[in-house]
Amino acid sequence: MKKQVTVLLVASLLLAGCGGWRDSRINPGNWFGKSRSERVEAPAEEVNPLLPKSRKGIFSRPDPVDMTVPIAEVTELRVEPTTTGAIIYVEGLAARQGPYKVELRPVTTPEEEAEGVFSLSFRVVYPERATRLGTPFSRTVRAAHAMTKQEIRNIRMIRVVARDNVRTTRRR
Q: How many angstroms separate the Cα of 125 from the Cα of each of 24, 95, 122, 143, 148?
């Protein structure tokens, strides 16, 4: 009887010591912390009116028109590890109902890349016809971006840019 109690006591002490795994840096679920939101101002576009936009031949097709616009607000940002790398999950609130062609477009500059920052622009296309404003639930859209282990190796911070805010998350 004493052996069983001793074994049970030792086993429970060992099991209690394993609780630190949840908060350790080895646990892949802790690679990135919680995201936070920041306000952003619209950048001024620098255009030189003396330079032509492009040089094309007379038989070339016109460039496709980019109809996407930044979503109004990013409300959630999560990074979840996978066996091949990580998936960046983003949720945003559109300015009105009916957005489609939701995409996360990489917009990282060389300066940001040198600092370990990976930036994404959360973009949508709205219908041409007028739509209602609607409830926040009806304007919520989600998108995801997959990254390999090689792509995410040097990244220390992930930024998702919207029209009104920027949401960031840092590696722990």
A: 41, 11, 11, 13, 27
